[in-house]
Amino acid sequence: MDQVYFVFNQFILNFKNYLGDKKAQCFQVLPQSNDEISNSNNSNAIADPSSQVSMTKKQRHELQKSLHEIARDCERQVLHHSGLDISKDLESFDVTLKNEDDDEQWIHTLACGKDPQKPKLVLVHGFAASSLSYYKMLMPLSQKYEVYAIDLPGMGLSSKPEWNFQGPEPVINFFVDSIEQWRTKMNIEKFTLVGHSLGGYISGNYALAHPDRLDKVVLLSSAGVTKQTDEDIRRHMETSPLHYKLWFKVFDYIWTNQLTFNKLYSETKILPAELIMRQYMKMLKLPSEEYESWSQYMDKMLKLPESGEKAVFNMLQFPRCNAFLPLEQLFPGRLKVPVHFCYGGQLDWMCSDGAKKLIQNKQVEGTYTQFDHFDHQFTFFNPQETAQYILNL
Fold it and tell me: In which residue ranges is the amino acid composition biased (Low complexity) (predicted)?
């Protein structure tokens, strides 16, 4: 759900009048010493297994399992609002993957619309999100498809391996190989793959690696498509409004220090956890009956150890989330399945230029669609229209 963007954008909007043009420089107070961060007495802090040097792999695994079980209870509460009968229409389970280090790794999965006669549909969420990003789309999509929504490895309720990757290619291969392992375990021969935001970028790379397994790939407000030069980025930053420039300053610090949302929420004093959660819940604009379920779910998710969330620093560049290896560069002459790009209007902060060029120049087979009233959060704020768009393809 790309919570980082929305929380900090809302935070900056709320405080920009207080800061003013000159006081924008006060964001240099953000960096803290390592001692300050490590000695934080934040009451929301929770033990991070990856930071426990003396902890054995077995102990780390057991701690993860216990934290995940608490979060699963919260997930079930949110799914009560999906429109599905979770006791009979929806399954929640883990699919175990092979691992070179013999650590138990798994991909958390939601499934609905089970019918061997239906085509298969797999949903991949974006950065700092989970399969629940699609919770309001599961019911309409399941009328046509056998639907699977997965938590990417290292995110959501999937296992949290220690993150030691360097560079974009090993990370891309990790996600692509994990999805392929999951597909094999699930005995799915062919399917339609849908990815939102960072999940779109990962889905695009899966389509390059395993075209024989796909009917089509659908990229919703996908990150990492457009190839951008340093001049493009400089011009964008110079012409951005003040609150976006403040946002860039915050994210420059976050990107440089590779701070995940989990770490910001539970371990640092950059922003109080209560403020982060309050702004996030305000952004969601949920009906009162859903507010508490989501609040509890997000609190538990953000207290889980960081892992796959760090992938964004390996694959994408600051400040516009342009990829080190953009799909605009990778797709021509190599993509062997239809690709359907869909973006929002002016409020969609993902750059769609590369997608438009690929379709207009007929470098790929597929379509480009734009919904001017959409922002970046298709799956959350426009679930019915987004589901109908997918159903009509």
Answer: 38-51
For the stretch 110-152, pLDDT in tens is: 999 999 999 999 999 999 899 999 999 999 999 999 999 999 9
More confident residue, 26 or 388: 388
The vertex-386 CA angle with 95 and 116, nearest 5°, equals 45
Q: What is the C-alpha separation between 219 and 335, in angstroms, rounded?
A: 14
| Residue 78: closest CA among 128, 132, 126 | 132
Q: Which residues, at least 6 apart from 101, have a Cβ–Cβ distance to it below 8 Å?
A: 57
Confidence of residue 16 (pLDDT cuts 50, 70, 90): very low
Region of residue 284 (left: phi > 0; alpha: psi -120 to 50; beta: else)? alpha
Please name the residues in contact with 137: beta carbons below 8 A apart, sequence gap of 6 or more. 123, 379, 383, 384, 386, 387
Model confidence pLDDT, tens digit, residues 302-321? 888 889 888 999 999 877 77
What kind and span of H or E run contains 381? helix 378-381
* Tally of helices (H runs) and strands (E runs) in the chain: 16, 10
- Least Cα distance to 180 among 95, 91, 68 occurs for 95
Q: Which domains does the chain have, with CATH numbers?
A: 3-392 (3.40.50.1820)
Q: β-strand 214-220 against 316-317: which pairing, if any?
A: unpaired
